[in-house]
Amino acid sequence: MNRFRRLRQNQAIRRLVQETEISPKDLIYPIFVIEGENIKEPVESMPGVYRYSIDKIDEILEEVDKSGISGILLFGVPAHKDSVGSEAYNENGVTQRAIRYIKAKYPNMLVIADICLCEYTSHGHCGLISGNEILNDETLPLLAKAALTNVQAGADMVAPSDMMDGDVAAIRKILDDNGFINTPIMGYSAKYCSKYYSPFRDAAGSAPEFGDRKTYQMDFHNGNEGMREIANDIEMGADIVMVKPALAYLDIIRAAKDMFNVPIAAYNVSGEYSMVKAAAINGWINERDIVMENLTAMKRAGAKIIITYHALDMAKWLKEE
Ligand code: PBG
Ligand code: ZN
Prior knowledge:
Blueprint: H1 11-17, E1 27-34, E2 40-42, E3 50-52, H2 58-67, E4 71-77, H3 94-105, E5 110-115, E6 129-130, E7 133-134, H4 140-153, E8 157-160, H5 167-177, E9 186-191, H6 198-204, H7 224-236, E10 240-244, H8 250-259, E11 264-268, H9 270-281, H10 287-301, E12 305-308, H11 311-320
Parallel strand pairs: 1-3, 1-4, 1-12, 4-5, 5-8, 9-10, 10-11, 11-12
Antiparallel strand pairs: 2-3, 6-7
This protein binds ligand PBG and zinc ion.
Ligand PBG binds at residues 114, 116, 118, 126, 161, 197, 200-201, 206, 269-270.
């Protein structure tokens, strides 16, 4: 008889044959930086997540610094929004100033700037609009400028999350033209139109004022199309490609891993985080065990990099193991 239980009989043997290893090095922690002073504001729908003004951001950066995780993904919450998202590409915008501050004080911290317009537009869409239409090509130069100003401020990497066609190419070109040939781009390549982003839109105040994001973000019925999106991002110069969300999309992560030879990131998004936190707070699940299982599943599916609001907790738990 085949006895699979031989290799499960005690922890010493189990750890010897363990196939998937997850490390703090794999983790990226998203941070929301808000315009203003003396602000540490809880995000209601994401227990444990806060918006920080620049003067209060050290509190969380010191934790990141000690944690052993690989870096942060920065989102901005501006004081002023307009129809063209001006603050996204203002060289003194909230992320640009935050990045200058962070890189001066923590020069070795990997800072990734999320690039999009939705946090900065009055209408909450990720691109310019004309009536009810979200414009593609007209949006590209603004995304490129947003990327450039954040890189000029010191961002180590940019991650366009807009889902406009051609975004990665436009950003690669402006960075190269300005001498930033070594700044990597992480594409939000297979980004699905998902209700799992709802808590994030609370956090960033970026919910669309009309309609939805279905004309630019992907339809969750489609797997093959995700591979075409990823192939295109790689062709346009993406150094890392992302699948987002993660948990309901492990098949997409696995397919991408099998098909492409570039590092794959999984974004364990806000709604996935909030569901776990809500159940944990109610005592219905064990948070630590569930998070371990969830993040390990993303790694097992083929993600090298995991962007997660659990990153700091996870790093602590991994050290305790
Ligand atoms: C902005 C952006 C979103 C997320 C990352 N960048 C929201 C959206 O597309 O509506 C989602 C992150 C999360 O839910 O944790 N384009
Ligand atoms: Zn957006």
